[in-house]
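User: I'm writing a tutorial on reading structure tokens. Could you give me a worked example: one chain, its sequence, then its tokens, then a sentence or two explaining what the tokens reveal?
Assistant: Sure. Here is the example chain.
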Amino acid sequence: MSDRIAAAEDGIRFFGRVTASISHEINNVLAIIYENSGLVEDLLLAAEKGRPLDPSRLKELAGRLKAQVRRGKEIVENMNRFAHSVDEPVNSLDLRDLLALTVSLARRIVSMKEFEVEVEKVGKAVHIRTDPFLLQNLVWLCLDFLMEAGSSPDSIRLIPEAAGDEARIRFTGMKSVPSGAGFPTPKQEILSKAVGARLCMIDGEMLLSIPQNAAVPPQRHQGTKKEKEV
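And here are its predicted structure tokens:
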């Protein structure tokens, strides 16, 4: 199997895994909204039978509903951004934003593994030109490797930084540092090659180096350019 086909197949699996996780999060939001709307109905039924309405209770329930609507809106917006990451095989972006989106999309999976992942967004923007979808996939493979090789509960901090004509992502902060055995994995190697990146372990940190202006080889089918739908 060629690297191009392998990268495409792994990309489909990644897209499916993220989509499944998002659907679970949306279902959780809807379940909470349904539960709280039921409580509102109970209060109204009680009021119809002569029990005084408790304004503070209604205000509390309204606040819960608004919070879930905001949460649902954020999930859908992230899903939309992720879906559009396949629109262009090469795009200019701020590495900090891409990492923040990737971590947000992986929030449920990371939580199930009893890990916490955060992105350090201090300092200047880290601009790169690359394939956003393949890079998100590669970042996820790196996180997944660290979580599988480490011991939960633990935390991982992603630090994006510019370094000459490269951009780097430091995966650091873990209490239990993986030995590096079996690293990089075949999938990591394929995707690293696809985006022109390098992966290594240095002083207990995983380091992903990406050219700031990479000529990314076409790993995905490039059809006719279409206008993005919002």
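What the tokens reveal: The chain is about 50% helix and 20% strand. The helical segments are 3-48, 55-84, 95-105, 107-112, 132-149, 186-194.
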